[in-house]
User: Fold this.
Amino acid sequence: MFPDLSQVYDSTSATLTGGNRVERRLSDLAGCFQDEAAWKALVEESDPLLYAVTAVEPENHAGGLHYGLGVLYPGRVGEEYVMTKGHLHTWRDAAEVYIGLRGEGAMLLEDWESGESRLEPLRANSIVYVPGNTAHRTINVGSEPLVYIGVYPAQAGHDYAAIAQRNFRKIVVSRDGAPSLQDR
Ligand code: S6P
Ligand code: ZN
Assistant:
């Protein structure tokens, strides 16, 4: 039998029919932001919702694909822009495609072996290819919600532990109102 083959998304409301929605608040990103005092103060004040992902997982075999619609809200923690936890795929070879739908964002990519980092724009009409063996984190550098879709192999898996042990080498901060890639 066919699984659910079609879904409908709306980039304004950042909704997707079907799928499971997972929400992440600021408190879920312990240890991610450089300015720990700013992180703690904001968690104690309101612990805002940072992002939500609605994932559709039609098949789990080796050739299958999963995809998710993400909405990442704007804001800053200290000078650092609001971002996702970031992960490597458990199956390190698994690549991913991100399609920007709305808002002004960027993908922070880090080759996990060499540590080489890049910042790629993610906005409406842009597509970012995330190669295998590359840690990836999505960042909202604008003032409205960033909405995107990610498509990845069903067996990719999410390895958050590797990032918890060794955070990304670079951070993205606001400098004179513009995003700037800096050493952590
Ligand atoms: C999954 C894909 C996205 C992220 C989402 C949230 O492979 O990369 O759907 O899960 O952007 O980010 P994170 O780092 O919290 O999973
Ligand atoms: Zn991924």
About this structure: The longest helix spans residues 36-45. Residues 19-183 form a domain with the Jelly Rolls fold (CATH 2.60.120.10).
